Amino acid sequence: MKIINQPIRSDWPKLCERPLFDQQDFTATVSDILDQVKKEGDQALFDFASTFDKVKLDQLQVSRSEFNQASQRVSQDLKAAIKIAYDNIYKFHFSQKTQAEVIETSIGVNCWRESRAIEKVGLYIPGGSAPLFSTLLMLGIPAKIAGCSEIIVCTPPQKNGLIADAIMYTVQLIGIDKVYKIGGAQAIGAMTYGTETVPQVYKIFGPGNQFVTKAKELCQVDGMAIDMPAGPSEVLVIADDSAIPSFVAADLLSQAEHGSDSQVILLSTSQKLIDETLIELDKQLNLLPRKDIAKKVIQNSKAILLPDMKSCLEWSNIYAPEHLIIAIENVQDFLPLISNAGSVFIGNYSCESAGDYASGTNHTLPTNAFAKQYSGVSLDSFQKKITFQELSETGILNIGPAVEIMAETEELIAHKNAMTLRLEYIKNKNND
Amino acid sequence: MKIINQPIRSDWPKLCERPLFDQQDFTATVSDILDQVKKEGDQALFDFASTFDKVKLDQLQVSRSEFNQASQRVSQDLKAAIKIAYDNIYKFHFSQKTQAEVIETSIGVNCWRESRAIEKVGLYIPGGSAPLFSTLLMLGIPAKIAGCSEIIVCTPPQKNGLIADAIMYTVQLIGIDKVYKIGGAQAIGAMTYGTETVPQVYKIFGPGNQFVTKAKELCQVDGMAIDMPAGPSEVLVIADDSAIPSFVAADLLSQAEHGSDSQVILLSTSQKLIDETLIELDKQLNLLPRKDIAKKVIQNSKAILLPDMKSCLEWSNIYAPEHLIIAIENVQDFLPLISNAGSVFIGNYSCESAGDYASGTNHTLPTNAFAKQYSGVSLDSFQKKITFQELSETGILNIGPAVEIMAETEELIAHKNAMTLRLEYIKNKNND
Question: Are residues B204 and B160 in the same domain?
Answer without folding.
Answer: yes
